[in-house]
Specification:
binds pyrazine-2-carboxylic acid, 4 helices, alpha/beta, binds zinc ion, 6-stranded parallel β-sheet, globular, two-stranded antiparallel sheet
Length: about 200
């Protein structure tokens, strides 16, 4: 069985949000349409506490885009985004949630970021997504959402590592491109690990 995995289509990641991904909103009609082709749909939600270590505002003398060492891991510093319970963390209202079977939260621990929907960035804690998919008999996952060069990429890398046949649907994903070329580099890297880019 094949599942659709929808990554982080939340207000802060689309136009008007604090960490807006260019063209983020434009993928939503396609994501809604695609859902009809899957018997299992799951979504992830970036879900940070206000004191999260990935927020530049929580570090003295640091700015957005700086890279720091956060408890032993390299961490890009972001604007405050997707704070638990806020509008910015909510799914974009035009995203159809009626077919979503389960939502997995990530980035809930203030000490460590989590780009992947499966594990935190240090692979220390598991969100339960991998086991959930395996229990449902899923062998293949198609991934869509935001952002291609962060959460889509790391979710796809973990999916393939867990043994799922993994595809990223390009037209239904958009990236941050903090540096020009990041999205293209992400696709090349994913492909080199056996992920299909469709
Ligand atoms: C994301 C940066 C920080 C993402 C989440 O969803 O791609 N990017 N937190
Ligand atoms: Zn985040």
């Amino acid at each position: 069985m094949k599942a659709l995995l929808i990554i982080d289509i939340q207000n802060d990641f689309v136009e008007g949000g604090s960490l807006a991904v260019p063209g983020g909103k434009a993928i939503i009609p396609l994501v809604n349409e695609l859902q009809k082709d899957y018997s299992l749909v799951v979504a992830t939600q970036d879900w940070h506490p206000l004191d999260h270590g990935s927020f530049a505002a929580n570090h003295e003398n640091q700015s957005q885009g700086d890279i720091i060492d956060l408890h032993g891991l390299q961490q890009v510093l972001w604007p405050i985004h997707c704070v638990q319970g806020t509008f910015g963390a909510q799914f974009v209202s035009s995203l159809d949630l009626t077919k979503v079977d389960k939502v997995f939260h990530k980035g809930t621990d203030y000490q460590i970021d989590s780009y992947s929907g499966f594990f935190d960035n240090g692979h220390r804690k598991d969100t339960g997504l991998g086991q959930y998919l395996k229990e449902k008999g899923v062998r293949a996952v198609d991934i869509v959402g935001l952002a291609t060069d962060y959460c889509v990429k790391f979710s796809a890398l973990d999916a393939v590592k867990l043994g799922f046949e993994t595809t990223v649907i390009r037209d239904a994903s958009r990236g941050v491109n903090l540096r020009a070329g990041d999205v293209e580099a992400a696709y090349e890297m994913m492909q080199s690990k056996g992920i299909i880019i469709m």
